[in-house]
Amino acid sequence: MSLREMFEKREETWLSTFATKSIDSQGRQVAEEPCDVRTSFQRDRDRIIHSKAFRRLKHKTQVFISPESDHFRTRLTHTLEVSQIARTVARALRLNEDLVEAISLGHDLGHTPFGHAGETALDRVSPEGFKHNIQSLRVVDKIEQGKGLNLTWKVRDGILNHTGDGTPSSLEGQIVKTADRIAYINHDIDDAIRGKIISLESLPKECLKVLGFKHSERINKMVRDMIEASWDKPYITMSKEIICAMNELRQFLFYNVYIGSLAKTEEKKAMRLVEEIYHYYSNYPQEIPIEYRRHSDFENNYQDNSKDILAVDYIAGMTDRYAISSYKKLFVPLGFQTPII
Questions:
Q1: What is the predicted pLDDT for the residue at 48?
Q2: What is the value of pTM for the model shown?
Q3: Which of 53, 162, 172, 225 is deepest in the core (most CB within 10 A)?
């Protein structure tokens, strides 16, 4: 019996009847020989961690664009916090931690530079529209390595449905969807207080009475509530009291941080930058690096919309600083230099 088969056997005996077992991954788009050491979900997690798209998350905005302090969250640290929260819940409910981790680490791979400002800009200018969860799935299906990562169906389903109206088919995916919200509500409060956009005293008092007055207390309260409310249930949920308090905090963040605050003063510039770069590359797709053109319809059949999709793929993959340097290269003139004779 291989190590992988031993892990699969242990899942059968230890995990909850509601858990997604590795042998029930529903397969890959292209069939592969199984690994002797790792289960299918462990293999997916490793592929995501070793991807270029994952590494680029460290230089992508979460909320604050290019902050001077090293302690503000980036898209990468957000992803790691989601993974930690989701794994804690999965372990307590005896669900599949490997599946939860793979979905968590891959859920934001398609996010744009400059956070939701970049997402809004691409959605506005692209004829196809843009949603980062759909792009995340496109990254793992087509873009990464020029052919995608060939992940299992259950991981792909969790990535696609981690946000929006869709419901993940697995409880592990449902955990990630809730953990994503727990993570960003709490760390965005923490970052906004650090950035002096809001103060602890300005937070809704009734919410703090329910959830806690400290960052760690609020996360602990939400995580414990999700575990207790979901215990022995075939779905993931939270108590009405906690959901109401979370939603009120989220609404507070929208009004006081996400819209019109000092944290957002540079967003209009970022959106215009993304839009200008998009218009350039959709007109000159041949200037996009070959690793992006390799997987695209533009290289294969020159369809009209393939130029737009190719430009979106390239720009969505950019880090904040690479997008800024690309803009300078394309639109900022260099001073004349006397040639050396």
A1: 98
A2: 0.94
A3: 172
